[in-house]
Amino acid sequence: MVGKEFDSLKQAELFYCTYSKVVGFSVRKDDLRRNKYGATILRRWVCSKQGQRPKKWLEKRDRIREPRALTRVGCRASFRVNYHRETSKWVVKEFVTEHTHELPSACEIQVLRSNCQVVDYMIDQSGSCTNIGLVREDLQNKIDVACQSDITDADSETVIAYLYGKADMDPGFFCKYTVDENKRMGNLFWTDSISRFDYSCFGDVLAFDSTYKINAYQKPLVILVGTNHHHRTTVFGFGLLKDETLDTYTWLLETFLSAMNNKKPLSIITDCDKVIRQAIKKILPESTHRFCSWHVERNAQENVQDEQFIESFKDCMLNHMTPEEFEQQWMTLVEKFGLQDNDWVNKMYKKRDLWAESFLRGQFFAGMHCSQLCQSMNSYLNCFLQSRLKMFEFVRQIDKAVSWIRYNEAKDDFESSSIPVLSTHLERLEKHAVQIYTRNVFYMVRSEIQDETLLIVSGCANEVDRRVYTLTKFRNAHMRWIVVYWRKDHRIQCSCKGFETVGLPCSHSFSVMKAEHLLSIPDNLILRRWTKDAKDSKDLAVNSCQSPNDFIEMLRFAALTADCRKLCFYASKTTEGYRKAKMEIYQLTRRMEESSKIKGGSISSVGFSERRSSIVSDPARKPRTEIHN
């Protein structure tokens, strides 16, 4: 490249920006020099990670706003051109290709700052926003809802055909449906390999969102969601139901567990529906059930139309207090507003163990108390509330919404690779938290570290193998916490039960870490589901003996699909790369196929018919021609 000429400065800049998109980094303008007449004679571009942030900004403590994460790591990649006066050309004088940091994966390239362009039609052309090479921030505001074509054939047949197509492309795709006595589709449930893989990682908490009836047939849509390692919504599956009876919800839960290798969640969050509660008691009696706080608050507004009561009620519902303190506060609340004879208030008091934090503290809910977590999906589906879509188009729009949720997860993965500015008084512990937790979760942990400054160690009792600390809060001496520290293995347990509830170390634990001069967070306070390695596929080989072969095969498929994205992205850029990758993939596939045959299996046997077996009707498989909308 050194010595190459460009006709204009704009051409040189266009070349380097295009090159950066192919390689996978953002470009930043750097040096600029002009002659005495003001004309540009030199221009230099560098990688956006070039240089270092000035030390004075790192050491600044009196910040008002959250500092931006550290993105500059001293990268040396650069591109410089000089103007040659005799030829009137721009000549390349410097071209450094080496980067001092890891380049992003294919899906991460989409979120690079220099790649931000809007190309709306590419979403429909590629089938998913994760398949396009360009990002656009406001695509969600440009959803094309026009020209929705009516399906003249049997709508349910079209849906099943569409799901068959998805199963052909995804061996881990799972779908099950029922057919009623009139040979019409009853209930429908579906999920794919990525959702099943996510459930294997984050299926400890399950939330129901059953607030939608936005298809042409008014079928209730149930979205089964959880929270991932970025503390954002992840989707586990969908159910289109014929009604909202006990039998229907029982079928949905049984089908869901069947798809998820019978792994049962520790906790479940739903609305206040009595039928759902009965189904959970029947199918998941060991899971802790709580009502969605949003639905409880909405019911309170409908039954007791008093804003002051609502605020006091929310305080009882969400604030952490002992059961005794709750009882006292509840009695005061009821007497203050004269609600002793209110039927709804009395019913809710009897169910207080299903919605009050005082009785749910210590049960793991991953920081969730509301079933309406899927905000990005909700905002997307709200666009179609008045559309009354046919079932086929409705399912397609759901797929698009899921692609956005997964795109946001890829964006979170990319942003977690940057290093936030350390800003607390416990720098070594904060640095350890940065290394292990994802970015969003780190901010939650850092908030606990900041709250530690208000805590005071008021007592410490030495026992045989442990120390028992008593903590109070500055200017709130009546508030006390007991924290136990085991010297041998550095285990810490707090009476606030914050770790048992959320899965993150509390401020009281950090106070004991400081008192014990610990330089890292103890292992017993690190929950893998919140770490950057939460979805590390290396553990699949270790856990393969714990799951049926078909299920672990599906998990491997989902993990390998994600790992191959980077290879496919770079290989598709050039004809030579495409041919080479094609040959390597072909040869590797042959070797894997031969290896499978030697071990008694056969990859070739997993064909069209077997992949379709993931879609079954219930109670018995019916020919597609017998299904009518």
Distance between the termini: 63 Å
- Strand tally is 17
Radius of gyration using CA atoms only: 29 Å
**Helical stretch count?**
24
Proportion of residues in extended strands = 15-25%
Structural class: alpha+beta
Largest sheet: 8 strands, mixed
User: Unreliable segments (pLDDT under 50, ≥5 consecutive)?
Assistant: 116-123, 129-153, 541-546, 601-613, 620-629
Give the domain tally. 5
The backbone outline, from C-alpha atoms, is globular
How helix-rich are the residues, as a percent range?
40-55%
What integer is the average pLDDT? 80
Placed side by side, the strands forming the largest sheet appear as 12-11-8-9-10-7-6-17
Structure description:
The chain is α+β, with helices and mostly antiparallel strands and 629 residues long. The protein folds into five domains: 5-103; 104-144, no CATH class; 153-291 and 370-417 and 536-563 and 599-629, no CATH class; 293-364, no CATH class; 427-530, no CATH class. It is built from 24 helices and 17 strands. The strands form three sheets. Strands 12-11-8-9-10-7-6-17 form an eight-stranded mixed β-sheet, sandwiched between helices. Strands 1-5-4-3-2 form a five-stranded antiparallel β-sheet, with helices on one face. A four-stranded antiparallel β-sheet has the order 13-14-15-16, with helices on one face. Helix 9 runs antiparallel to helix 10 (307-318), helix 16 packs antiparallel against helix 17 and helix 22 (565-571) packs antiparallel against helix 23. The longest helix has 26 residues, at 391-416. It starts with a strand and ends in an 11-residue tail after the last strand. Residues 116-123, 129-153, 541-546, 601-613 and 620-629 have low confidence and may be disordered.
